[in-house]
Amino acid sequence: MDITEFFANSIGRWRSQRSAHHLAFSHFEAVQSEIDIISLPDDDQTVIDLCKSYNIDPHAVASPFRMSWQGQSDWDESEIKGSCVLVPIPDPTHPNRGKLLRDQGYAETIAAAGDYYLTEDGTFVLITAYDRAAAEEKIWFVNPNVRCRVSLIKTSAGTGVVTASFSSEIRQNVQL
Known about the structure:
It contains two helices and ten strands. It is mostly beta strands. It has a single domain (3-173), classed as Lipocalin. The chain has a ten-stranded antiparallel beta barrel with strand order 1-2-3-4-5-6-7-8-9-10.
């Protein structure tokens, strides 16, 4: 599986159940959400602007997409929602490795660029360093309509885990 196939398999509406352990607060959180993943054209202005902000040729992109989410947490009664644009940039010499540009990060709500690779079994692994933290995510498909995600938020030095979460996601709709 390459990055194009991985994200093509991710398009659609997903129902997510996430369990998170916030170690800094000694708190367990349960989150239920809907996640929409839609493909974007390579010439989308947001994609081009994001590439330019990292001095990357916009012609190097593969399968850019927008991910939007909304949900509820048992920790906070306010609705959780957001959206971000993600732009994979495959490494031309190693097609199962590359950069993933985001207009909004996972651990910090600033633009971020992470390094990704796909394992032999099709697991997508993303490692992103931020100013005050580091994130490691793994996503894999159980079958075409079920995927799992594990996320770790670590200290910026990568020596301590601050948050650990597991999500199971079930596709509700393939086409958006």
